[in-house]
Amino acid sequence: MGPEQLVRLFWRIGVAGCLAALLSACGSKSTAPSTGSPSTPSATVTAVTISGPLPEIGATTQLTATAALSDGSKQDVTAQASWQTSNAGVITVSDRGVARGVGAGEADVSASYSGSTGSQHVRLAFRTFTLAGTISEVTTGRPIGRSQVEILDGKNAGKRSAESDDNGRYSLQGLLADTFKFRARANGYDFADRIITIVDADVRADMALRPSTGPGCVFSVTPATLSFSKTGGSDAGGSSASISIGTTAGCAWSATADASWIFVSNGGPYTQSVSGSGTASITAAVNPNTGVFRRTSVKIRWATGGTDVPVTQNGSITCVSSIAPDHQDFGAGGGSGTIAVTAPTDCSWAANAFGAFIAITGGAGGTGNGTVSYTVAPNSSTVGRSGEIGIAEPGSTTRKSFTVTQTGTP
Question: Is the whole model's pTM more than 0.70, yes or no?
Answer without folding.
Answer: no
